[in-house]
Amino acid sequence: MASKAAAAAVDFTRIYSSLGLSKETVAALQAFRKRHGDAQRIQTQYASQPTTVDLAHYRSVLKNKAVVDEAEKILRDFKPVTYDVNAQIKAIETFEAKAVVKAKETTEKIDIELKDLQATLANIEDARPFEDLTAEEVGNAHPRIVEAVENMIKKGKWTVPGYKEKFGDLSLM
Amino acid sequence: MPQLIPFYFINQLSFSFLTLLALIYIISKYFLPLFTFQQVIRMYITKLNNK
């Protein structure tokens, strides 16, 4: 399955550090990883243990052969209890589908954020010094200033307080 | 010169009055606000630059 192959190739340290996940998500992810690691460890531990019983050895060692025969019979008749794991698998699959959908949503969100950030970055890179700006550009960037000027003019205020002191005046009167 | 003939005085007066009104309207609506706008922007940029 493609999703399982993808899961195997996931670089978790990068996910923790670079995606900006919330604390709960990181904790849940770490708990899930720990659970998976524990299960894997236990599985390898049990898989390495022997699964056969050397009955001939016991027969040669013990005097009471009937016990060994009985043990052999019990062993032969023993059948491991089978569990129906379909329900669990189904739950896991629905969880996986949900997780994939959520991951897709998150990637879309991140894509949008990335576009915003790139636009901001382009804005910063294209920024020009104050000397090169025109009044019109500043007005376009801050429509509030245009509104304020319109209000000033409506009230009959044609000059800016402090302007004359700062920049001087060309009028001869 | 027709300007000096009294018959045309009213005509001249009315047209000069209309022209003056139109000029005042156009200048105060479209040109003078640009000066105020420029002053405001200049103050704004100066304040930003000093920050």
TrEMBL record, chain A:
It holds the Pfam family Mt_ATP-synt_D. The keyword Cell membrane does not apply. It is found in: Mitochondrion inner membrane. It comes from the Eukaryota. GO terms for biological process: proton motive force-driven ATP synthesis. One of its GO terms (cellular component) is proton-transporting ATP synthase complex. Keywords: CF(0), Hydrogen ion transport, Ion transport, Membrane, Mitochondrion, Mitochondrion inner membrane, Transport. Coiled coil: none annotated. Its main location: mitochondrion. Gene3D superfamilies: 6.10.280.70. One of its GO terms (molecular function) is proton transmembrane transporter activity. Mitochondrial membrane ATP synthase (F(1)F(0) ATP synthase or Complex V) produces ATP from ADP in the presence of a proton gradient across the membrane which is generated by electron transport complexes of the respiratory chain. F-type ATPases consist of two structural domains, F(1) - containing the extramembraneous catalytic core, and F(0) - containing the membrane proton channel, linked together by a central stalk and a peripheral stalk. During catalysis, ATP synthesis in the catalytic domain of F(1) is coupled via a rotary mechanism of the central stalk subunits to proton translocation. Belongs to the ATPase d subunit family. This is ATP synthase subunit d, mitochondrial. The lineage of its organism: Eukaryota, Fungi, Dikarya, Basidiomycota, Agaricomycotina.
UniProtKB/TrEMBL annotation, chain B:
It comes from the Eukaryota. Its main location: membrane. GO terms for molecular function: proton transmembrane transporter activity. The chain crosses the membrane at residues 12-32. Keywords: ATP synthesis, CF(0), Hydrogen ion transport, Ion transport, Membrane, Mitochondrion, Transmembrane, Transmembrane helix, Transport. It is found in: Membrane; Mitochondrion inner membrane. InterPro entries: ATP_synth_su8_fun. It is a single-pass membrane protein. GO terms for cellular component: mitochondrial inner membrane; proton-transporting ATP synthase complex. GO terms for biological process: proton motive force-driven ATP synthesis. It holds the Pfam family Fun_ATP-synt_8. F-type ATPases have 2 components, CF(1) - the catalytic core - and CF(0) - the membrane proton channel. Belongs to the ATPase protein 8 family. Mitochondrial membrane ATP synthase (F(1)F(0) ATP synthase or Complex V) produces ATP from ADP in the presence of a proton gradient across the membrane which is generated by electron transport complexes of the respiratory chain. F-type ATPases consist of two structural domains, F(1) - containing the extramembraneous catalytic core and F(0) - containing the membrane proton channel, linked together by a central stalk and a peripheral stalk. During catalysis, ATP synthesis in the catalytic domain of F(1) is coupled via a rotary mechanism of the central stalk subunits to proton translocation. This is ATP synthase protein 8. It comes from Rhodonia placenta.
